[in-house]
Amino acid sequence: MDNRLPQKLQLGIEYLKEAGLNLFAILEVGRLPDRVTSRLADFAFPLSHRSRIILIGNGGRSLWEALPAEQWQHPDPIDRYSSEAARHFAGQVLTPGNYQLLYPGDTPVALQQLGASAGWHTASPLGLGINPRWGLWYAYRAALLTNDPLPEMRQPAPLPPCASCREKPCLSVCPAGALSETATIDMELCAGYRLSPDSSCADRCLARLSCPVSIEQRYTLEQVQYHYRLSLETLRHYFG
Prior knowledge:
By secondary structure, this protein is α+β, with helices and mostly antiparallel strands.
């Protein structure tokens, strides 16, 4: 534990780690980019100079391994589990009634921008953030907004792993040709290939699996297939 932090906050962070949610940040709203804070106006929560966003995530297989079997009996088991864990954390740490769960939820949240502000990642050709410790194998699971005067907790911006990657296998492996070293992912090409009959990327991303950064943190194939089957349904909705 970090003895510099309030005990309640330390215990709350430890609870989240035990629940498989091993990424944690507290961000001062007043120091966030306008493109992030402008979206907070869509939430019915009064902002003040003390407002903080608590960002919760998981790196590697920790969440998958911690998820209780009974969660799979419910729709959206990972979102449900993450929401329950975030609310439990809030009940332990935050003033009752002085917080709102932003994510998971129905209103879009600028998760990538929040993650960049937290020092969790730098950009990659896949459109996903990449972290030197976790590679491409981490995710945002919950975000809370509160006016409790919490200490800011963020990491220094990491060195971009892609800059020192000479081979860049993700670019050559992508069967859709949707990736470029100098441009963002071409979602039309990506979606078109993933939705095509007999696509080899229907339940996985071959480019993501080829990334050499922190391969020991790679999700299991079962976990990869679960997430990519869900994303395929989203692509059918927007591109099908």
